Amino acid sequence: MNAEYGSAGGWQLRRANRALVLIPIVLILVITAVDQLVPEDVHLGPLLVIAPAVTASFAGPLLTGLIGFLSVAAQAYIGWHFGVLYSRNVLVQILALAVLAALSVVFCAMRERHLRQLAQVRSVAEAAQHGLLWPLPERIGPVRIACLYMAAEDEAQIGGDLYAATRITGGVRIMIGDVRGKGLSAIGEAALLLGAFREAAHRHATLPDLAATMEHSVARYLADFEPAAEAGERFATTLLLELPDDDHVIRMISCGHPPPLLLSPASALTVPGLHPAPPLGIAETGPDAYAIDVVSYQPGDTLLLYTDGVIEARDAYGRFYPLETRAAQWPAGGPEALLHHVQRDLLTHTRGRLHDDAALVALHLHPDTHGHRRHGHAVHSGGFGHA
Q1: What does each C-alpha distance from 326 to 72, 239, 261, 348 come to in angstroms?
Q2: What is the pLDDT of residues 94-125, one digit of tens each?
Q3: Cα atoms in the 13 Å half-sphere on the side-chain side of 189
Q4: Do the Cβ atoms of 276 and 297 come closer than 8 Å?
Q5: Of 36, 56, 375, 381, which alpha carbon lies 20 to 30 A from 100's?
Q6: CB 104 within 8 A of CB 68
Q7: What is the CA radius of gyration of the chain?
Q8: d(CA 239, CA 279)
Q9: Cα diameter, the chain
Q10: How does DSSP assign 11-40, residue by residue?
Q11: Nearby residues of 109 by Cβ (< 8 Å), 6 or more positions away
């Protein structure tokens, strides 16, 4: 689908550029024709510089050079038409026009080089995203999943928000987290958390043991790589969830992470009261430091997980995004539709610009729980953002 869209988008862009080429050509023809109709003391030839300048805004060096050549030729034709081609004034105008056209070509060449460099940076970011951080599957056991990631840094496309899900014996475990910082600078810690979750989620029978193991991994990482000037300033909030196959409950441990929203098809909204532990990386603790919060749900409910980049997004007046109020308006339509509504509404709220990475995961708790039960860990996935 993405390749198809990219191909269609590229074809539309090329068609638009071909249509835009008519603008400088028409300008050259109009200026040349009108200059021959106005009084002799009015000279419109210098306006021909507009043609290569306009072309440089949408075309490459070759086409800009061609339009520049046509502009110089038109200026020469005007001088020849009036019999003053070799006059000092016309020669200076032709030379100046040629110099400005050449500068437009140089500008285009520099812009093309910068665009290629930016494309390479984005390609590396996408390769990191797809090579190290896999997108979540659409379904794990009885749970339908939709996820959304919006990076604050456009060039990065990835950052410090993360999520992962895996199938374990008798249930599903899911994680969402938020590393301090944003963009490329937060990738190291985010990748560490994802790796720790993927490795430990199958080896520990309880969520407190899993949380303690992840805290230990973060502590070792910070001890080895944390700069002395940032001691104590690097941490990650994390929400760990476990959904057993044989019961309609959600077990959760919050390490400084905001609570999820539980939405019912009848538009009822529940915000579970959690007993959060400190964020990972603050202080290394054992399993006893993590309290499990248990929330019941009805089949067909949707659980919405999010990072603080969503609820702390501000509008032009400094008001936070009211996620609870807005999400309660869209309980129907499945997890994909819910995230589509939230994304569109969030970008409208912030006028299209986020100041922090934002991630959301919607879990549709399917009514046919037992019919989709599986054992083992056949599915294991996680990622930074793949809607």
Answers
A1: 59, 22, 11, 12
A2: 999 999 999 999 999 999 999 888 888 777 76
A3: 28
A4: no
A5: 36
A6: yes
A7: 30
A8: 10
A9: 96
A10: HHHHHHHHHHHHHHHHHHHHHHHHHTTS-T
A11: 61
Which among 77, 60, 67 has a CA at the least distance from the CA of 23? 67
For residue 42, count CB atoms less than 10 angstroms from its CB and return exposed for 0-12, middle for 13-18, buried for 19 or more. exposed
**What's the one-letter identity of residue 106?**
V
Q: How far is it, in rounded angstroms, from Cα 290 to Cα 255?
A: 8
Amino acid letter for position 154: D
**Tokens standing for 56?**
């440089």
- What lies within 8 Å, CB to CB, of 235 at 6+ separation is 180, 218, 256, 279, 280, 281, 282
d(Cα 169, Cα 177) in Å, to the nearest integer?
23
Evaluated on CA atoms 27, 29, 32, 33, the torsion sign reads negative
Mean local confidence (pLDDT), 308-328 = 93
Whole-model pTM?
A: 0.68
Alpha-carbon distances of 59 from 67, 105, 115, 116, 277, rounded to whole Å: 10, 10, 13, 15, 56
Question: Is the distance from CB of 31 to CB of 48 less than 8 angstroms?
Answer: yes
